[in-house]
């Protein structure tokens, strides 16, 4: 079951986000330490500045995906997918695909035409998933993140969703 979280769901958000950052520290730009110290009000605020979707299995949050719309008026047709995580024992179960479908539906309803993301070059499963879902690589940031003193490239990808909507 997928749910679009609201600010009152901050405990669910905190639980799955911290799990993600602790389980896969090398693939996220943020660290668990960045988020662990946040007060409840900041967790609530982050649920108003981003659309955050969580997939549940047996009432337990097992996957998360967020969407942040560009703020500048000339870029408001674009949004960035963030915080993507599926619990290891639930991978391959369709959670990421279902979350992405929810994000695409939400984005289209909000007038967004293009989805963008950055993915670790060391996460080949995620790169394959995004390619299967219609994302194309548009660039690479060498040393985009540093984890434990090691530079990791980020791959930049985009997917147009306006043409899909008009051809569907």
List the helices and strands and how they pair.
Blueprint: E1 2-4, H1 10-23, H2 32-36, H3 40-49, E2 51-57, E3 60-69, E4 78-86, H4 95-109, E5 114-120, H5 124-132, E6 136-147, E7 150-160, H6 162-167
Parallel strand pairs: 4-5
Antiparallel strand pairs: 1-2, 2-3, 3-4, 5-7, 6-7
Helix pairs in contact: 1-3
The H-and-E topology, N to C, reads as EHHHEEEHEHEEH
Roughly how much helix do the residues carry, as a percent range? 25-40%
Low-confidence segments: none
The radius of gyration over CA amounts to 16 Å
Give the mean pLDDT: 95
- What fold name stands as the CATH topology? Aminopeptidase
Number of strands: 7
Biggest sheet strand order reads 1-2-3-4-5-7-6
Question: Can you walk through the features of this model?
Answer:
This protein is of the alpha+beta class. It has helices spanning 10-23, 32-36, 40-49, 95-109, 124-132, 162-167; strands at 2-4, 51-57, 60-69, 78-86, 114-120, 136-147, 150-160. A seven-stranded mixed beta sheet has the order 1-2-3-4-5-7-6, with helices on both faces. The longest helix has 15 residues, at 95-109. Residues 1-162 form the N-acetyltransferase domain. Keywords: Acyltransferase, Ribonucleoprotein, Ribosomal protein, Transferase. GO terms for molecular function: acyltransferase activity, transferring groups other than amino-acyl groups. InterPro entries: Acyl_CoA_acyltransferase (IPR016181), Bact_Acetyltransf (IPR050832), GNAT_dom (IPR000182).
């Amino acid at each position: 079951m997928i749910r679009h979280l609201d600010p009152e769901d901050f405990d669910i958000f905190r639980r799955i986000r911290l799990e993600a950052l602790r389980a896969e520290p090398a693939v996220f730009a943020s660290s668990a330490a960045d988020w662990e110290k946040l007060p409840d009000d900041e967790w609530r605020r982050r649920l108003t500045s981003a659309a955050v979707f969580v997939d549940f299995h047996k009432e337990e949050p097992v996957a998360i995906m967020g969407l942040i719309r560009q703020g500048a008026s000339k870029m408001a047709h674009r949004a960035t997918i963030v915080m993507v995580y599926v619990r290891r024992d639930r991978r391959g179960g369709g959670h990421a695909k279902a979350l992405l479908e929810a994000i695409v539906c939400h984005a289209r309803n909000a007038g967004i035409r293009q989805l963008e993301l950055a993915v670790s070059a060391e996460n080949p499963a995620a790169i394959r998933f995004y390619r299967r879902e219609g994302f194309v690589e548009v660039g690479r940031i060498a040393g985009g993140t540093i984890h434990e003193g090691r530079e990791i490239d980020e791959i930049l990808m985009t997917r147009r969703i306006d043409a899909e909507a008009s051809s569907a």
